[in-house]
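If your schedule permits, I should be very grateful for your opinion on a structural question. What I wish to show you is a protein chain and, alongside it, a tokenised description of its three-dimensional fold. Would you kindly read the sequence against the tokens and tell me how you understand this chain to fold? Here, with my thanks, is the record as I have it:

===
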Amino acid sequence: MPAPGRPREFKDQRVVEAAVDAFLNKGYAACSAQDLCEQTGLGRGSLYNAFGNKHELYIEALEHYDQEGITEQQRILQQSLSAKERLQTLFEYALPFDFTDQQKPGCLIINAAMERGGMDDDVDRIFRRHVDILEQMIVQVLHEAIATGELPLPQSAVADTYVAELADMAMSSFYGLRVLNKGTQNPALASRIIRGTLTAIFGN
């Protein structure tokens, strides 16, 4: 946390969003103070006087990116569509970031977990929270699908257990897809993974 009394006049959304871009393009370790100054338009003294240090700014950027992502995922999963269509939209909404928007490669939350997971408590906390929230939303969508008959509940299956297993499958495919997209740049592979996951959950 910032030291008590530190001026915060530069801590605004524009600066944090600029830092998001810098960390997306460079990662944490490779992103220098000069990179951050060039991206934000602030001098080094002003930047660190407002945010403390590079790590504090990184966590501010992650928190902002996380909130933006969760808000968009919530919007997608609460649309007036079938459960299958909502999950398909969730999978597909990330594709432009992975394939066509090379100035913002991949997902900052996933990049952070891969680069600093297990060594940075703040990164671990943000990533786990993000995963937990998304999983809860997917679980809700699948319960709604069972209630409407879109997703048949197998005989002898316990609804909560069945839904949890399907949600785990969806989560694994979603995050695995993001990593594969970044490494392979193969849209055809991404489409097959999305179709296969949805077929595994809902059938044909």
Summary: The chain is about 75% helix and 0% strand. The two ends are 50 Å apart (CA to CA).
